[in-house]
Amino acid sequence: MANLRAGLIGLGMMGRHHARNLRAIDGVDLVAVADAMGDPHGVAGSLDVLPNVEALIEAGIDYAVVALPTEFHEEAGLKLAAAGVNALIEKPLAKTTEAARALAKAFDEAGVIGAVGHIERYNPALQSLRSRLEAGDLGDLYQISTRRQGPFPNRIADVGVVKDLASHDIDLTAWVTQRQYEWVGARTMYKSGREHEDMVSATCTLSGSLMSNHLVNWLTPTKERLTIVTGEKGMFVADTLTADLTFYANGQSLHVWDDLAQFQGVTEGDVTKFAIAKPEPLRVEHENFRDAVLGKETDIVTLEQGARVVEVCEAMIASAKTNEFIRVS
């Protein structure tokens, strides 16, 4: 069987990593790249740098990776769908919920595969966490909290921290817990003089009365990427920078005085750090999308799920403006 012919549009910071992985995975040949701004990182190699998505399509590709700035996702994605080309589109799926839904509809009607590059789903710590939650290792879930903080990346100009960074946490929270967002409340701040927000603090409710809290900003001098799930049997902490997963069990405490025991909360128990394999998440993401194009059963972030993430992002932004909780449709 011939290798799949892949194309890449967008040769910026993420584009260079996509190019590296497209060249590394089995069963795929990177045959065309495109970027109207050229090739600042020299990833094209022997390939010509094409000017636009139309030229990419004309190269005769089986699928494309779209690593353009968010504001150009809709235009490129709609043209790929119309041409019958499968596409992996970087997150967030689009700049607005309306545009994201238009993409999901276009790919569905064209009968081609579309996916969103929410890379955290492929982080080994979160994949292990999801499996353990599904197996009931934590019992009833009470709360999930995420912290995603770090310096401002100069490459981001068209969206704020909610759609660029918090979108990761929105998707991973819904995916890890297998719940849906229902209510969103948030506060945002503008501290760096940009048009868009650079800090958000959100409190949300997911289906099954699960509480979530998200602290995300571009104002912290060191990176932090934590997902903390608290439940009936203890607490899981996933560090997605190091792909480590740790379980803090509730301890057992015996009391002679029964009247005191009824007021006793949890106590510290055993701590377990799991040994898990740590493949590169972006590589796993590419392998999953390749398999989806080949018709195999695999785990991709669907365009419908990507549109849902954008909707929750916009609910956060609306909540911050109105000082009200926003119901997610």
Automatic annotation (TrEMBL):
Residues 127-236 form the GFO/IDH/MocA-like oxidoreductase domain. GO terms for molecular function: nucleotide binding. Residues 5-118 form the Gfo/Idh/MocA-like oxidoreductase N-terminal domain. InterPro entries: Gfo/Idh/MocA-like_OxRdtase_N (IPR000683), Gfo/Idh/MocA_Oxidoreductases (IPR051450), GFO_IDH_MocA-like_dom (IPR055170), NAD(P)-bd_dom_sf (IPR036291). This is Dehydrogenase. It comes from Tessaracoccus aquimaris.
